[in-house]
Amino acid sequence: MSKNVRTSQVDHLYEAILCLKDKSECYAFFEDICTVKEIETISQRYEVAKMLRENRTYIDIAEATGASTATISRVNRSLNYGCDGYDMVFKRLDEEKKDE
């Protein structure tokens, strides 16, 4: 994460997110704090990242998610040169599936 994003306000937000206990609480919190469009945009980026990790083509991803090629490219850049946040989450979710 870039240093300019690390602020006490962002810390407070992340602390609030970390105290959520289940998907129902996530829905309640995020529907209060975000617009529907913001939630849709974030979830779209996550889906794009998953599909990129599955080696799907930009055209396939754009058709399935409605994301622009610019958004797909931006997410791809994060996957390749970012802070490895997506990969950390994907790995943990895969581990959870294996444990089930």
TrEMBL record:
InterPro entries: Trp_repress, Trp_repressor/repl_initiator, TrpR-like_sf, YecD_YerC
GO molecular function: DNA-binding transcription factor activity; sequence-specific DNA binding
Pfam families: Trp_repressor
PANTHER family: LMO1763 PROTEIN (PTHR40080), TRPR-LIKE PROTEIN YERC_YECD (PTHR40080:SF1)
Record-given protein name: TrpR family protein YerC/YecD
Organism encoding this protein: Eshraghiella crossota DSM 2876
